[in-house]
């Protein structure tokens, strides 16, 4: 009986159990960031609270040890982004990493037209995931099928756009701020706007600035994290009891 009681007793909260806010650079995948932090500090468990595309920068919530049990809180949280859309061309990935598949003149597009299309997207939307995404079809990620030149039917998903504001209009580049629910493909929104405008468009740059209550202003640059010792990293770990209330 004593042995059973000991086995059911939870271990004390460790000093590294919690979340680390990382300012991701362009290039590494979210998995790369998680794996390098796990190896660098020899943690047993490391995860993240929402994927960023490799070329996207900004806030990646890294969850450490028992903090990984809090992943759902971040995966389901609203997100805020700053981005740049390029008018005049669409790509096979809907972003700057893909091959240009269509082009058209953008010179007659006005600021007012772009703002109108952004405003039209505010509210509930049914969005179809792009082929180059991590969504799975029969257990296989769509991007793997796309690499083989395959296109399959995808089920639209409900998303919500709270805010979609134009920051700067310097055609062919359009800067914007977007606040949306989880699972929103920003590059698909840019592609859709390009279609509506008749000039095509793709996502040129993307930076995540908020995830739920967490802000990129409090994040540590990824390269700096990798230069730290465990003792130096500790002050940046948000403890379990503060996850969800720390900004």
Task: Give me some keywords for this one.
2 domains; alpha+beta; Pseudouridine synthase; two-stranded antiparallel ribbon; Alpha-Beta Plaits; 247 residues; eleven-stranded mixed sheet
Mean pLDDT: 89
- The rough form would be described as globular
N-C termini distance: 44 Å
Structural class: alpha+beta
Number of strands: 15
What does this structure look like?
The chain is of the alpha+beta class. It has two domains: 105 residues, Alpha-Beta Plaits (2-Layer Sandwich), CATH 3.30.70; 132 residues, Pseudouridine synthase (2-Layer Sandwich). Helices cover 25% and strands 34% of the residues. The strands form three sheets. Strands 1, 2, 3, 4, 7, 10, 11, 12, 13, 14 and 15 form an eleven-stranded mixed beta sheet that branches. The longest helix has 12 residues. The mean pLDDT is 89.
Brief overview, please?
With 247 residues, the protein is of the alpha+beta class. It has helices at 2-8, 30-41, 71-75, 111-120, 142-147, 186-197, 222-227, 230-233, and strands spanning 18-24, 46-48, 57-64, 79-87, 89-91, 100-103, 123-127, 136-137, 140-141, 157-170, 173-180, 201-211, 214-215, 220-221, 237-239.
